[in-house]
Design brief:
This protein is an alpha+beta fold. Among the domains are: about 100 residues, 3-Layer(aba) Sandwich (Glutaredoxin); about 50 residues, no CATH class. It has 7 helices and 8 strands; from the N terminus they run αααβαβαββααββββ. A 4-stranded mixed beta sheet has the order 2-1-3-4, with helices on both faces. The chain has a two-stranded antiparallel ribbon with strand order 5-8. A two-stranded antiparallel ribbon has the order 6-7. A hairpin with a 2-residue loop joins β3 and β4. The longest helix has 23 residues.
Length: about 250
């Protein structure tokens, strides 16, 4: 009476809902979960905890960043070496006095550029410092040679002293200024003048008022001329308004 396709569907449903054999309820054991001893279990746990892929390494620094890093590291190491080489600070009243030896001659261009650059750095700090031009007074060169007599080789210009301590030349001044250590070294020095000196125009020397730069004075007692004792070999003397007379 029922169509053949219905009977076939009923038979298939009956077969699918028939109770399965007891053997079908047994869960098959996976070979990976079969561990007859505790040693195999420990090895399995170690394998599961170990990462399958190594952790990615941090990306290398770019070339500009690497150069900046090396530059900062070299500056820091040079600063530490400079601090170790400094003698103990003096407790004299002039322990913050800044003395700068340089030359205004342009015969050697590299030396002139170094002196001008270091002089500009010191002036940017707005402090009062003693500028001693060795080309205008040979006595300054003798002082510098006496202060650096323990050094080997030729003395180069410029040279900086703070409180009687030798700081260094153009390279040391530039490096200390970049790290901010130069400002700390001159901290406590008197402030510089707000404007250029009207007497010498910032040259720190004026023409001798007694001999007018001729280096000769007439002596009424002897009836002749003699060398002027108030000026140097160039007929100049230190500016009384912006420089101290004593070295």
């Amino acid at each position: 009476m029922w169509p053949k396709w219905v009977k076939t569907r009923s038979d298939s449903t009956t077969i699918s809902t028939a109770p399965s054999s007891p053997s079908l309820h047994l869960t098959p054991h996976s070979p990976s979960l079969s561990f007859p001893t505790l040693k195999d279990l420990q090895s399995l746990l170690d394998n599961n905890n170990s990462p399958s892929t190594p952790s990615p390494s941090p990306p290398p620094l770019s070339s500009p960043s690497l150069r900046v890093f090396h530059r900062v590291r070299l500056a820091a190491s040079a600063l530490r070496a400079f601090q170790r080489s400094l003698p103990p600070p003096s407790h004299s009243p002039d322990h913050r006095r800044v003395v700068f030896y340089f030359t205004s001659l342009r015969i050697v261009r590299s030396t002139f550029i170094d002196c001008r650059s270091a002089r500009s750095i010191l002036r940017s700090l707005r402090i009062a410092f003693d500028e001693r031009d060795v080309s205008l007074d040979h006595q300054f060169l003798d002082e510098l040679n006496s202060l650096l007599r323990h050094r080997c080789g030729k003395i180069s210009l410029p040279q900086l002293f703070v409180g009687g301590r030798h700081i260094g030349g153009a390279e040391e001044i530039r490096r200390l200024h970049e790290t901010g250590e130069l400002k700390r070294l001159v901290d406590g020095a008197p402030m510089g003048p707000p404007a250029v000196c009207q007497s010498c125009g910032g040259e720190r020397f004026v023409l001798c008022g007694r001999c007018n730069g001729s280096r000769k004075q007439y002596s009424e007692k002897g009836g002749g001329f003699r060398a002027c004792n108030d000026c140097n070999e160039n007929g100049l003397r230190r500016c009384p308004d912006c420089c101290s007379v004593s070295p």
